[in-house]
Structure formats: C-alpha cells, structure tokens
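Notes from the 1:1 (GR / supervisor)

We went over the backlog. Supervisor wanted to see one worked example end to end before approving the batch request, so GR pasted a single chain during the call. The sequence is below; no edits were made to it. Supervisor asked that the structure be written out right there so they could see what the output format looks like.
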Amino acid sequence: MRVLEYIRYRIFWIFDFLRGSKVLKHYKEVKFVMENPGSSRAKELHAHNLRQLLKHVVKQCDYYSKNAGSLELSSFPVVNKSIIKNNQNRFKVQELSEKSFEVTTSGSTGTPFRSYQNQNKKYRNNADTIYFAERAGYKVGHRLIYMKIWVKQKMRNKLAYWAQNIVPIDVIQFNEKDIARLLNAIRKNSCTYGILAYSSVLDLMCTHLEREDKSYSHVAVNSIIAISEALTDHTKLVMEKYFEVPVVSRYSNLENGILAQQEVNGSKGFLINTASYHIEILKMDSDEPAHEGEMGRIVVTDYFNYLMPFIRYDTGDIGALQTDPTTPGLKYLSVVEGRKLDLLYDTSGELVSSYIVYKNMWQYPEIDQYQLIQERAKEYCFKINVKGAFLKEKQLVEEFKTFLGTDALLNVEYVDEIPLLASGKRRKIVNNYKNY
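Structure output shown during the call:
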C-alpha cells in the first residue's frame, strides 16, 4: 500500500479501537464464518445469532408477540415491504438504548420505503463491507471511485470523503465527457483504485474503452464491483480486458446490506453472506421452500437489526440456491434476478430469464437505451432510443423471437428517452401482463 493509503488504513482501525473495536470484532466474526463455514463454531454462531434475534423480537416487537410460543424460524410469517410499511410502529422496537439511523430507499418502482437500524447493525454492515470488498481486491485506504446516485442532502462534508479516500461521482447525467475525464484522472494519479458502480455505468465505460482501445493494465485498479443491476457478460469481459482485474457483481440492498457477492475466480454464483443473514428461497406461489436450483423468491432474515427486525423478509427478488458439495456450509445463489415485476414469460407461458436481455444487447451498440415490455401473453414491445438510423431491427426481432417464441408479436417502438425511476435507474424489463 502507498504511504497515504496505509496511513488512512491505520487511522481507520485506530479510531475503531478507541470506540472499543466494535467493527473489528464483527469483522473477525464475519471472516471466520465465511472462511470456516462448516465448522462447529460457525454453526454455533448461526444458532446463537438467530436465537438471540428471535428472543428479542417476540418480547420487543408487537408484530411478533404472537410468536412467543415458538422460536422456530419457520413459524414466523413471511413479510414484505408493503406489510412493514403498513405496520411501521408494530415492527419498530420502541425502546432501544443504542443510537438509531433512518434508511430510506426510493424502491425500484419509485415508492419510498423507510426503515431503521441500530448502531450495532451499522457496525456489522461496516464489517461486511470491509470483508467482502477485500474478497474483491479492495482494502481500506485505497481510493474508491464510487459511482451511483448521490443525494446532496444526505452527503457528508468533503473532508469526510477525503479522509476515507472516496471519490463520489453522481451518475444522473454521467456522459462521455465525464468518462473521459475520469479515465484520464485514473491514468495520471498514482493511487491504488477500487471502482464501485452501477452495472449500467460500467456499460457506458465499456463503450468508451472499446472506442478508445487503450489498456489500463499499468494503472493500479485492484477491484471493480458492480452493484444494483445485472452485470452483463460483455461488460465483465471488456472491463477485465482493459483493466486486467476481475470484475464481480454484488447483491445487496439498502435496508439490509451485502447479501451475496460473486467470487474473483470467475464463477457466476453469488457467495451468500451467511455470517450476517439467513437466506431462504421460497416457491413463487407459496411459502414452501424451493428445491435446490429451483427459481424462487429470495427471503432474508437479518441477524443484527434489533431496531426494525427483518425476519423472513421477501426482498421482491428472484434467485436459486446452490450448495457447494466440496465445502459444507458454503452456500451460493446460482442465479439472482430482479423484481418479480421484471420477469418475462414466453408465448407458451414458461418463465424466461431476464438475462436474455442483458446477455445479448451488447450486439447493438447503436442503441443508447432500451426497455422490453410484455403487454399480453404473446405481445411484446421493445422501446429503443438510438441517435441515428437503426439498421438491425429485423435482426433484433428475430433474435428475441428465438427466446420468446416464434409466434411472438414483437413491436419495436423508437423513443427519445426511457424515463428514470426515482432510484435513478431505468427498468430494462417491464411486465404489464402477469399479476403476481
């Protein structure tokens, strides 16, 4: 590590030591559980963390008071954003000595969702972030280029970002000139970099990198982590080609934290954060467990939020569970898909992975923005935004008919803009046909 980076690293842990090593204690536990998943100690920690959480909520949360007779997780109800939002006071613990923090998400549909976290939960999230960033190649003290939607009212002062070596970049109007300016700064500064960005922002960077065709292998970019949206194979390959560093995708949300993350070995599975969460995959149409490898609803129990507990919380996302036959206790999400409202069905009514879109659109660099909409059982609309003439419309339609069905009625609509959600992201898939 460079001198200033090392100093920042040491200062971070000194400050944590002065606060009682709160983050370090959590970090050590996370590291142990993740790296010794089948050990008796790891199993004891899982059981202890879950038992303490359930004992707490049946006493302190009105919503769970009826569960006092059983501390079996399966006896607790499955909840979702709507249930929590409509019963806010019943979920929130009224008396907790720890400092509290409000977390507000716009949600993928633009509907605000407010939750709360206690101080110990924040420490745990910090530990999770440090550990999983390290698995991707990032160390505390590296210069982190953090590209997302930044809300000015919620940002800290510039000195705080300087001290943490974070470069916040708002991507609401991120364009070609901004990318060129950023890459030029990376090329000139002798820092060890980490990049944390929406997958769609990395898509834009790839377009520039391919056009520029200059290697950045001489630049110390040690980690690239994609967040919030599906990472395409094309984007992953292009970023790895020009920066010569593995690119991983992270599955997380604001109300909980880091739930799973891909490994740097190139595998597509997401290593589940079993140290901090219990994750279930439930069937699409019932609360029964899905079989291993079967697509279902991702349901999360957060061990450490004692202020507003998330127990058997249906995230609205879809995934499939996979265990590692060679390492007992190691669990992966073999697939992570977006919200249930973003699922597509082919003309025979079978579920089609949304990755057919993410995987294939790299072939159409002329398209700036796109959105695939299912209107009826066999009717689809492809909205695209292109600057000039688009000469591959027939190719696009025929290609997607191979996924959706040869009898699919696929209309291409040219638009000036695909509107942003309140979250600052664009829905690439919309289903107006199915009711969930």
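Supervisor's comment: The chain has twelve helices and 19 strands.
Batch request approved.
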